[in-house]
Specification:
By secondary structure, the protein is α/β, with parallel strands linked by helices. It folds into 2 domains: 210 residues, Periplasmic binding protein-like II (D-Maltodextrin-Binding Protein, domain 2, 3-Layer(aba) Sandwich), CATH 3.40.190.10; 135 residues, D-Maltodextrin-Binding Protein, domain 2, CATH 3.40.190.10. Helices cover 30% and strands 18% of the residues. The protein has a 6-stranded mixed β-sheet with strand order 2-1-3-14-4-15, with helices on both faces. Strands 5, 6, 7, 8, 12 and 13 form a 6-stranded mixed β-sheet that branches. Helix 5 links the parallel strand 6 and strand 7. The chain is globular and about 60 Å long.
């Protein structure tokens, strides 16, 4: 299958997934009538499974909650501790918040500790972890009603870059090689367009990738896009519309407590907003060149041998926590992962990500290269 055929296939699979999601149907029980996903080139651990210890969730053996380092680690730790405290109160179990050094390290930790790990990982990382050692998805994020998100390619607003083809030979800043929106999806987009970037470098997170364009360290960057929030009576964003706010970008400024980046009432929610305090004029300096096709939202997943009874208790507690005000200071914070809610997820929803992984030839080993 050539690259163009693969990209067309991916678009069709994405569209089919979106139609099913919009109709509110449960995850399919039969394989989709498309080409079966090619298995990811990974190897399962050779060690025999071990019986789960009986003291998981005690102070002596806390459950590790892993968060990929896609935003500021201090924000993750602070918000993660809020969630850990709420889950402890609801279940009596003890949790330890952990921010591994990379997406790959998160996957490796889940496979190395299959009985006592929970992780919040994006679609790409979930697929690798599932194929590598059987990590199992539980929930997926909902952000302001959207069960999907996008890659945005950003450039300096004053640049003469007008198309993806113009990126050939230019310096690319990406979040992390384990990031679905920050690396995997744009990698496939560039292959489809026949574009070979020049120098590439890992910025260390989505905000850092945007910052690299703002400071001139990179010619373009790839990061996550979430649609802006419209004020009452304003124009709500829909797929196919211009991803930028529909007002003068030079009007964008912080609100009084610096918690929001607003442009005449429109709230910016993409990765640019994560550097708003450092660069409040980021929207007027960094523009969106284009968006990718839709990507399924990131996951909350369990280690492959996590005890079923503990998992059920935790899932119930997380679902209840998502309905509280404290959620907004944890995963629901726009400076954290911005989950406005969550939905039950099934492994089959991530099959088209497997297709992209196979197309790009990605393995966990390649994440650290």
């Amino acid at each position: 299958m050539n690259k163009r055929s693969m990209f067309v296939l991916l678009s069709l699979v994405v569209a089919s997934a979106m139609i099913l999601s919009a109709c509110g149907t449960p995850a399919p029980t039969e394989a989709p009538a498309t080409e079966a996903p090619t298995e990811v080139m990974t190897e399962a651990p050779t060690e025999a499974p071990t019986e789960a210890p009986s003291n998981i969730g005690t102070p002596e053996h806390p459950i590790k909650v892993l968060f990929v380092p896609s935003v500021d680690a201090n924000v993750i730790v602070t918000g993660g501790e809020v969630m850990a405290a709420a889950l402890n109160e609801a279940t009596g179990l003890t949790f330890e918040v952990v921010v591994p050094t990379s997406y790959a390290a998160t996957i490796e930790e889940m496979c190395a500790s299959p009985t006592d790990t929970i992780a919040f990982i994006p679609a790409f990382g979930y697929v690798l972890a599932n194929d590598l050692c059987g990590v199992d998805v539980s929930f997926k994020a909902v952000r302001r009603g959207w069960g999907v998100y996008w890659t945005m390619i950003v450039v300096n607003r004053d640049s003469d870059i007008d198309s993806i083809e113009d990126l050939a030979g230019l310096k690319w800043a990406y979040a992390d090689t384990g990031s679905t929106s920050g690396y995997l999806v744009p990698k496939v987009m560039f292959e489809e367009a026949g574009v070979v970037p020049g120098e590439e470098f890992e910025a260390g997170g989505h905000p850092q990738a945007v910052r690299a364009v703002y400071t001139g360290e990179a010619d373009f960057a790839t990061a996550f896009y979430s649609p802006y929030a419209a004020p009452e009576g304003g124009t709500k964003w829909e797929i196919g519309m211009d991803p930028e706010v529909p007002v003068d970008v030079n009007s964008c400024a912080l609100n009084e407590d610096k918690s929001k980046l607003l442009c005449e009432g429109y709230r910016v929610l993409d990765a640019r907003a994560n550097i708003r305090e450092e660069y409040p004029d980021v929207v007027s300096k960094v523009r969106i060149l284009m968006l990718s096709p839709e990507i399924p939202n990131d996951t909350m997943s369990f280690g492959p041998e996590f005890p079923a009874d503990l998992r059920a208790k935790i899932e119930e507690a997380v679902a209840a926590f998502a309905e509280t005000e404290a959620w907004g200071t944890s995963l629901g914070s726009e400076d954290f992962y911005g989950w406005s809610g969550l939905q039950a997820a099934e492994d089959a929803e991530y099959d088209f990500i497997r297709l992209m992984v196979a197309s790009a030839g990605m393995t966990i080993e390649s994440l650290d290269n």
